[in-house]
Design goal:
This protein has 6 helices and 4 strands; from the N terminus they run ααβαβααβαβ. With 179 residues, it is of the alpha+beta class. The protein starts with a helix and ends in a 30-residue tail after the last strand.
Length: 179
């Protein structure tokens, strides 16, 4: 049993208050390398990642991202590359595309946590504005930011669940009706 992996999964929380201390290039590369091993539907690997550290670009991104509460020193934007969809005759509505974003996102956040960094996903942003700010190729669809940085001393715990949830509350066994 690898208790360290389980502990890493259990203790990761979204971090929304970060310092301006830069994230080392080597650490960002480790996070990207981890995401490369995330499962991908049909192993098609439609995700593309854009790393943003430039202060002015980050400022512009925050202006069009109401759900980005962090002033993160590093952002990784997960995009879907539409060229891969065309190549494999997949519609843009294929559910595997969203799942691929999720597997990459969680893998990145766990990798960041393992490195002692904090992270947070953000999907609340203007896609059209992000395309312009980053001059994205037409085939790239921006889907989720992963904000990465160091925990601010003032950081509070993340959003509280409405009620305490255990895995039992979320799980059914076998078939309905349960015995
Ligand atoms: C699909 C998705 C979209 C999310 N979008 C945002 C967002 O725009 N802004 C934000 O602060 N957190 C966002 N979150 C983070 C959730 O609010 C967070 O995971 C949840 O409150 C549980 O907190 P925890 O991950 O620390 O346990 C998102 C999470 C997911 C899975």
């Amino acid at each position: 049993m690898n208790e360290a992996v389980l502990e890493n999964i259990r203790t990761r929380r979204v971090l929304r208050e970060m310092t301006e201390e830069p994230v080392a290039r080597e650490q960002i590369e480790t996070i990207l390398e981890a995401a490369r091993w995330a499962p991908s539907g049909g192993n098609l690997r439609p995700n593309r990642y854009i790393v943003i550290q430039d202060p002015e670009t980050r400022r512009l991104i925050r202006l069009v991202s109401p759900g980005m509460f962090q002033k993160a020193p590093a952002l990784i934007l997960i995009c879907t590359n539409g060229d891969v969809l065309i190549e494999h005759s997949l519609p843009p509505t294929d559910r595997a595309l969203l799942i691929d974003i999720g597997t990459a996102a969680q893998t990145m956040m766990l990798a960041a946590h393992a490195l002692g960094l904090g992270s947070g996903p953000v999907t609340s942003f203007s896609r059209e504005a992000i395309k312009v700010i980053l001059n994205l190729p037409a085939s790239y669809s921006p889907e989720m930011f992963i904000c990465i940085g160091h925990k601010a001393p003032t950081a509070r715990p993340g959003m509280k669940p409405w009620k305490k949830i255990t895995w039992r509350d979320l799980t059914h066994w076998e078939r309905f009706p349960e015995g």
